[in-house]
Amino acid sequence: MPTIVFASPKGGAGKSTASVLLATQLAGRGGPVTLIDADPNRPVSKWAKRPGKPANLTVLDDVTEDTIIETIERAGRTSRFVLVDLEGTASVMVSFAISRADLVIIPSQGSHLDAEQAARAIRLIKKQEEAFRLAIPSAVLFTRTSAAIRTRDLSRIAGEFAAAAAAVFRTQIHERAAYRALFAFGGTLERLDPAQVSNLKPAIDNARAFADETIALLQERTAQRAEVA
Q1: Hey, is 224 helix, strand or coil?
Q2: Matching CATH number, 3-228, of 3.40.1280.10, 3.40.50.300, 3.90.1300.10, 3.30.70.250
Q3: Each residue of 190-217: pLDDT tens digit?
Q4: Whole-structure pTM value
Q5: Strands 3-6 and 103-108
Q6: CB contact at 8 A, 214 and 4
């Protein structure tokens, strides 16, 4: 049971969008998935209350810093994947959740402000690794990017992460009307009406590529564990 945690000290970085996209894509591939909404604004829970949530996707939002570890471990006993959408601050709950992660995804827009906060998240993960004496893989996920244009700022920031040996997803979550529609109408990308939402297929392809790369990263971690053992 892999646990995937979405973390960034900055609000509005795209954590909830990325977590819902990944959760629905994983659920669409079969097996139970649990998505824990640990954001005080409860964006994931609001989406889940709309029609169309996959039957094999459970959303939990009754979680505190005292219960987050227990909630993750309990969900892991019945789910194929556990995802955690964290609040946009550095807190005890965030630290506890990261300590249980098989992969931490750090969403970041292509701006220097977001990049600074992503770097803060990476430092927090390093502290958790030292505190718990374990390796916690992480990768930066660029969000709300243009599918057509790669800005100079984004290229520069990606280069800075590479120079610092920070892993970065090849896939980026592009700015898409379909992702906004997902939270407005509920359900999954595949169930949105193409007559109401523009460029739906590219959005679905983008989400699937994100899920594929996430699974590949988890498989790579499993292989590394096997080599160590």
Answers
A1: helix
A2: 3.40.50.300
A3: 999 999 999 999 999 999 999 999 999 9
A4: 0.93
A5: parallel
A6: yes
